[in-house]
Amino acid sequence: MALFTAGELEVMQVLWDHGALSPPQMQERFPRPIHNATLRSMLLVLLEKGHVTRHKIGRAYVYEARTPQQNTLKKMVRRITDVFCGGSPTALIAQIIQSEKLSADDIKELQRVLKQTGPSTRKGNRR
Q1: Where exactly are the structural domains of the chain?
Q2: What DSSP line would sit under the chain, residue for residue?
Q3: Alpha carbon distance 19, 12 (integer Å)
């Protein structure tokens, strides 16, 4: 399955956050004003790409995310890591730490995740 455009990602976010919705319900929850035709066009593209499913309830179609949010996050992080950090997860994490203001709780959570996950058998910077 192909990655998302920015608009498709907005549609998916609404579906991930709210579950199965009809286009008018999506428009109400959309983060910005969107024309009905534009939304329906994006939904058809997402349907063709296999990212959403739809079924008819009465006279209306209801759309639901088929691609899990966590799977999308993993693919997007991998892509960002490859494109901007030469495939190095360490470089990506270092960039995030340097560019974001982390609270003491954030740092504790990162340390907890590191302890829980443990070291990888991966060699070098690449996956």
Answers
A1: 6-65, 69-117
A2: -PPPPHHHHHHHHHHHHH-SB-HHHHHHH-SS---HHHHHHHHHHHHHHTSEEEEEETTEEEEEE-S-HHHHHHHHHHHHHHHHHTT-HHHHHHHHHHHS---HHHHHHHHHHHHHH------SS--
A3: 10
What residues does 60 pair with on adjacent strands?
Answer: 57
Fold of 6-65: Arc Repressor Mutant, subunit A (1.10.10)
Global pTM reads: 0.79
Encode pLDDT of 41-76 as tens digits: 999 999 999 999 999 999 999 999 999 999 999 999
Question: What CA–CA distance (Å, rounded) separates 99 from 97?
Answer: 6
> Inter-axis angle of helices 69-85 and 6-18, to 10 degrees?
150
